[in-house]
Structure formats: C-alpha cells, structure tokens
Amino acid sequence: METGRGGIVFLVLSALLLQTNCADTEYNVGIGIADITGPAAQVNMMGYANPSQTTKGIHLRQFSRAFIFEDKNKNTVLFVNLDACMFSQGVKLEIIRRLKSVYGTKYTERNVCISGTHTHSGPAGFHQYLLFSITSLGFVRESFDALVQGIIISVERAEQNFHPANLYVNSGELLDSNINRSPSAYLFNPQEERAKYRYDTDKNMTVLKIVDADGTPLGMISWFAVHCTSMNNTNHLISSDNKGLAALMYEADINGKDVLPGKGRFVAAFAQANEGDVSPNTQGPHCLDTGLPCDFNHSTCNGRNEMCIAFGPGKDMFESTRIIATNQYKKAKELFDSATTKLTGPVDFRHTYTDMTKQSLEGGRTTCPGAMGYSFAAGTTDGPGAFNFEQSSTSPSPVWNFVSHLIKNPSAEQIKCHHPKPILLDTGEMDFPYAWEPAIVDTQLLRIGQLFLIAVPAEFTTMAGRRTRDAVAQSLMAAGFTDKPIPVIAGLSNDYADYVTTFEEYQEQRYEGGSTIYGPNTLEAYINVYKNLSKAMTMGSPVAPGPNPPDLISKQISFLPPVILDRAPFGKSFAECTQQPGAVCKQGERVTAKFVGANPRNNLRLEDTFLKVQYQVNTSNFTTVYTDAHWETRFEWESKGLFESEVTVTWDIPLNQAPGNYAILYYCDHKELGGNINLAEGTTQSFKVVNSDKKFATSKMDQYQKKLERKEQLLKNQNEILKGKKGNLNILSKRLNAQKDSNTV
Ligand SMILES: *[C@@H]1O[C@H](CO)[C@@H](O)[C@H](O)[C@H]1NC(C)=O
Ligand SMILES: *[C@@H]1O[C@H](CO)[C@@H](O)[C@H](O)[C@H]1NC(C)=O
Ligand SMILES: *[C@@H]1O[C@H](CO)[C@@H](O)[C@H](O)[C@H]1NC(C)=O
Ligand SMILES: *[C@@H]1O[C@H](CO)[C@@H](O)[C@H](O)[C@H]1NC(C)=O
Ligand SMILES: *[C@@H]1O[C@H](CO)[C@@H](O)[C@H](O)[C@H]1NC(C)=O
Ligand SMILES: *[C@@H]1O[C@H](CO)[C@@H](O)[C@H](O)[C@H]1NC(C)=O
C-alpha cells in the first residue's frame, strides 16, 4: 500500500516536473506563409536573362515563408525565404517602410533578412538597378507589387502566429544533388586549401528545427548550396524549382495531403547558401550535337558556348526538378528528425550598408566600381548566354536599344583595377537613366543562439563561402565567443550584387569570375566587413550604419505593354471548355482540358488559383483537391492572336487518387474594352477516375526499385571502405618504400 502510494506520488511529481521542463522554451517563434506569384503571362523570367523566356502559365506557385525569432529579452530577427531568383534592394526598402508603418521600430533594414531561393522560373522586373531588368523590358510593377504584398502578408501571419519554441540545428551530407559547374576555376584555389575538403561543392545541408513546448514541429529552415536551375531556359511556366518543390513536399508530409499548398500550419523553407558555382544538373555539361563532354576549361563545344548544356539527373527538366527536390526534402526531414544540438543564447543582429566600390585592403589594394566581364555574356552551362550585348538596333530589348549608345568605354584605371577581367560592361561608371548595378549593398549578420546567418547580397562560390564562414567563426571566437559557432551562408539576401569568387578563381574569368563585379579583391573586402560585424556582435558594440543606398523605384523605366483587352473567339464565351477530358480516366493518367482564356495578368489570383480539380463527393459536396500550386497540375496560357488566348489545364492523376467523380474548373478574369475586369467561370463535364490496373504492378516495381537503391547504397558504402583501405595500403607501401630506401642508404 505505502510503496504503491509513494509510487503514485512519485509519478505525479515527475510528470509535473517533466511538464515544466517541456514548457521551458528558449525562444518565441512566429511563422507565416503567403503567395507571391507574379504575372503568369508575357513577363520575362528572372535568372537566365533570356528575353524570349517569358511566363506562359503556372506549374508551382511562389511563396514567401516568414520566420520571426525572439529571445527572452524580446530581441528579434525576421528571416524570410522567398521563391524568387534573389532579393532586391528596391523591394526591401519598400517592405521596411511598410513594416515600420505597422510595427514601429520592431522591424528595420537591420534585423530583417529576406533571402531568395534562386528559382530561375519566376517573373522578373522587380529590381531597382537597370542591368537586372534589361531583358524584362524594364521594371514590371506587377512583379514588384506581388512580392511586396505577399511578403507583408507572410510577416503579418507570422506576427499572429507566435509560439514558445525550442530550436535545434543539425547538419549532414547530401550527395548526388549538386556539382561544380566551374570546376576548372575551383582548381585555381591553392592545393593546400582544396586538400581540406573532399568535394568541390559543399555537400552539407544545415537544418534549423523549430518545435513548440511539447516538441510538435512548427517549422523548418534548411540551407543547402545548389542553383535552382533544374528547370531550364526553355521553361515558360512559373515554378519554384527544386527548392520550392522540396518545401511543398515537406509541408504536405507534415500538414497532410488534403491541406492545399500554402495553407498549412507547418512551414518548411529551403533556403539558398553559397551556390555561386553549384549546379543541380548532376549529369554535367555535354555538347548538344555530339553528346560528348564539353571543353573542360571553357565549357564550349567546338568553340561554341551555346552548345554546351548541363543535364540531369532526370530524363527531362521536370523529372530533374522532382529528383533534386525529393533529395533535399528527404535529407532535411532526416536531419530534422535526428537534430539534437539545441540552440541557446540570445537573438542578435548587426547590419551595415557597405559601399563595395570603395573598400581598401592591405597593401594599398582596393575594390573597384562595378563591371561585368565578357564571360558574363556567354552565360553558364545551366543556361548559355542569351543577353544580346551587340550594339545594334535589332536587339530584342527596347531597354538595351534605349541605353546602348551610351555605353561607356572603361577608364584606364577601371581596366587596371579589374585585371585580368576583360570588361564588357562598365556598369559602375554608368548611371543613365539610373544606376546599372548597386554600389552600396546590405551586409548583415543574424544570430540565433549558436547559429550565425551570414546574409550575403550575392552568389558566393563554394570556396568563397567556406572562407567567409571560417573567417566569421574565427572572428567570433577571437572576440570571446565561447560556444561552438555554427556559421551558415544565407545567400542572395537583401540585395543583389552578382557573384563573388575567390581571388584565385577570379583569375580564370569564367562566368562567375566575370560576374564578380567589384574586382579581384571583392571576397576579401566582404570578409573584412563580416569579420567586423562578428566582432562587434560578440563584444556587444554597435556598428556604423554605413551610407544609405539609393531608392530608385520612382525613377524606373518600363517598356512592357499593359493588357489592352481580352476577346473570346466568335461564337464562344470566356472560360468555355473547348476540349473535354475523357469521361473515364485511370489513376496514373494525364487529364487535359482546354478553355477559352484571358490574360492572367488581369488578376494574379494571389492566395487563390486559376484552376481547381474538384472531387465530387456527392451532388452537394464538391471538395477542391488540387490547385494551380500543386506539382500534379499545370496551368498553361497561350496567346492566340492579338486579344484571344487559350488555357490548357493538365492534371496528372496520382496512382493513389481516390476513385470517383471529378471536374476541372477554370477562373477567367477578362478585360473588357474600357478596362473593366470581369470573372467568368468555366468547368469541364464531370469525369470518372477509376482504379489503374497498373497500380499493383507499379507498387511491386517501387518495391524492387527501393531494394535496388538499398543494394546500391550498400555497394557504395563498401566501395568507400575499400577506397579507404586502398588509401591506407598506399600510405603503408609508401612508408615501406621509404624505409627500404633509407635501409639501402
Ligand atoms: C559538414 O558537417 C559536419 C557535421 O556537422 C561537419 O563535421 C563538417 O565539418 C561539415 N563540413 C563542411 C565542409 O562544412
Ligand atoms: C585547363 O587549363 C589549365 C591551365 O589553366 C591547363 O593546365 C589544363 O591542361 C587545361 N585543361 C584542359 C583539359 O584543357
Ligand atoms: C531543357 O530541358 C528539356 C527537357 O525537359 C530539353 O529537351 C532541352 O534541350 C533543354 N534545353 C536547354 C537549353 O537546356
Ligand atoms: C572594421 O572596423 C574597423 C574598426 O572599427 C574599421 O576601422 C574598419 O574600417 C572596418 N572595416 C570594414 C570593412 O568595415
Ligand atoms: C453529401 O456528403 C456529405 C458528407 O460529405 C453529407 O453530409 C451529405 O448529407 C451528403 N449529401 C447528399 C445529398 O448525399
Ligand atoms: C465533403 O467531403 C469531404 C471529403 O470526403 C469531407 O472531408 C468534407 O467534410 C465534406 N464536406 C461537407 C460539408 O460535408
């Protein structure tokens, strides 16, 4: 009896203790997600700088994922991850203005970091510097507004969704998901430095795990260096590419498949790191005509750069996107589930604006006013250059025609400063009609416990990122930081100032070196700044705010024509279904429907969708099971003459889709003469989804596939072990030989 009672008391006590332990959280975290999908027609995509790559529909919607971190003393940082090519200073200035008007001084340019995933399949035109909007016919207000509105909504949602939380960090290797696309430049780095690393790209993914007091997952941020260029420059559908899809996969996994994209509680962000020279096209560059590997040093085929293109790992760009996304999602989940390094300590930030054109370095060296090298025009193996830099009136870009006669020849000083870069565009010495590239950039360091986010406004190469991380860690420890710092490069954050290579890589002047705009000492200058920020943070001292960047949004030029009018073909009406799906479709098949369309720029349908796949449970209950944000659907828009257009909706029916009746809906916002925009809704007839006979065969095949993958992994492991043993043997035999030599002597 007695012992029994004691046992119960003990149990109750320990349960209470456990509870107080669990409730003991280190931080408050607010998390929000919102739609930022820009104009889905006629707007150039940001990234490949290919004027003919314009939006013609949606494969995946773009999202803004906002995370507010607050310590016990209410020190706050805001990290926003965007499905966009990068961030833009012009957008940041607008975001900060709006946040200040709502939240006062809680959010400033100093403690807000907004980072792009680097998808090359999102609408362009949101930059304030001229060079980045030449191929988009200048500034595109619709793109800019979609970003601003979506980011603000995601932050508002995060503000309304605060939880006491614990944070954990984990990191581990993800193989077969990235390669170096300028390996010959990497080889310019000193042998001793390269010897410290096994690979010529960073394979580590770092994951920040966010859980509430009970350990329930709230959110996740992962950083992994890989270009979001699985979708290539022939793609016209808005897509968040491999990182965006990884996020949707993880979110669907935790929130449940029934929760529509962007609507769930758990938010997963796949953020960018030092991806400057890192490609997802893991089969590497090959010549389009011969199929042979390209010239190693120049990435050319018979001297032609446009013939050398990197592919893989899938059979087409969709499959490649899916594979690289799946790899990132699975690795992030594994690291999340096994994370044990708990973050403790303050939230903090240091930020300064840095004039990158005027940095002084040891030995009288300096950085230079911005300039792009010739290799910039050639592009990369992920997307050969299509930037038309010839000073001719036949350029497809009216912006280029507008400014090209003003192109300056670089000064002798500028040529010397950038040596050995052959200067193609002297952007730093041109300011008509406004600055071509930034001079004053955001440089920022965020701290969450032991985690340090080095927010860089550019694309750092692998080695540039490693040097920066090491310098920050050393600087923190030299200044007295006692724990083990976890430095992470948060790439493409706050602003965009092209690429950053190491001094040595710069000497080869491949694309990344040609796009390192402040000259050969760019990296060293950045590292000095981040060292200062690290030191100041550790010492608790302030940093100088630096010179203010210009706000150029009111000066933007734009040549993109507005939508004038939509018209339906004679005898037809808007949103009318012109091609019905088959009455019966099998799981695993693709359903296609066509409608009389209208320009999707009339209404971006943010937080909404252009299409719905509805499951008809019965005559009074229709449930939306897919939207235009799903991987399984495609919304394609095609112009048919001056004012008419056609919309094609496809739905790839998953093998496990519930059998039953379905229909596809299309929302058609069309513009009338005079400017009014009206909505027409169209729907297909209802069609039946039936069981696939293939399903069982496929699940068997899946099982075999998995077995094979496991065996392959085993083999790989054994191979590694063998390699290690061989290495040891080599060393032994060398030693033996040496001994033999010394014996004979
Ligand atoms: C990768 O992560 C592991 C485990 O955290 C760490 O030991 C290693 O130093 C990291 N490698 C690089 C190149 O950062
Ligand atoms: C690439 O260039 C380096 C010198 O920079 C040279 O040593 C090497 O042989 C070249 N490789 C090929 C395959 O041309
Ligand atoms: C883009 O990918 C498609 C396959 O999806 C391929 O047919 C095409 O050649 C690729 N084009 C470029 C320029 O990479
Ligand atoms: C770093 O800090 C030192 C001391 O405050 C200052 O003199 C120097 O200009 C700073 N350098 C950079 C690059 O910010
Ligand atoms: C339709 O299904 C819902 C449940 O999903 C049920 O509540 C409703 O009564 C059904 N209506 C008809 C007309 O069968
Ligand atoms: C309609 O059906 C769906 C799927 O069966 C179900 O989840 C939902 O609750 C139903 N809605 C209503 C109003 O009955």
From TrEMBL:
Enumerate the InterPro entries for this protein.
Ceramidase_alk (IPR006823), NCDase_C_sf (IPR038445), NEUT/ALK_ceramidase_C (IPR031331), NEUT/ALK_ceramidase_N (IPR031329)
Neutral/alkaline non-lysosomal ceramidase C-terminal domain residues are 530-689
Give the keywords, sorted: Coiled coil, Hydrolase, Lipid metabolism, Metal-binding, Signal, Sphingolipid metabolism, Zinc
Q: How is the cofactor bound?
A: Binds 1 zinc ion per subunit.
Q: Active-site residues?
A: 279
- Which residues are the signal sequence here? 1-22
Q: Which GO terms describe its cellular component?
A: extracellular region; membrane
Domain Neutral/alkaline non-lysosomal ceramidase N-terminal: start-end pairs: 27-528
The prosthetic group or cofactor this protein requires is:
Zn(2+)
Reading the lineage from the top rank, the first entry is Eukaryota
Task: Specify the enzyme's EC class, one word.
Answer: hydrolase
Molecular function via GO: metal ion binding; N-acylsphingosine amidohydrolase activity
UniProt record, GO biological process: ceramide catabolic process; long-chain fatty acid biosynthetic process; sphingosine biosynthetic process
Enzyme Commission number: 3.5.1.23
Q: Which residues bind Zn(2+)?
A: 118, 227, 459, 499
Write out the catalysed reaction: an N-acylsphing-4-enine + H2O = sphing-4-enine + a fatty acid
Record has Coiled coil as a keyword: yes
PANTHER family tied to this protein: CERAMIDASE, NEUTRAL CERAMIDASE
> What's the protein here called?
Neutral ceramidase
What is the originating organism of this protein? Dreissena polymorpha
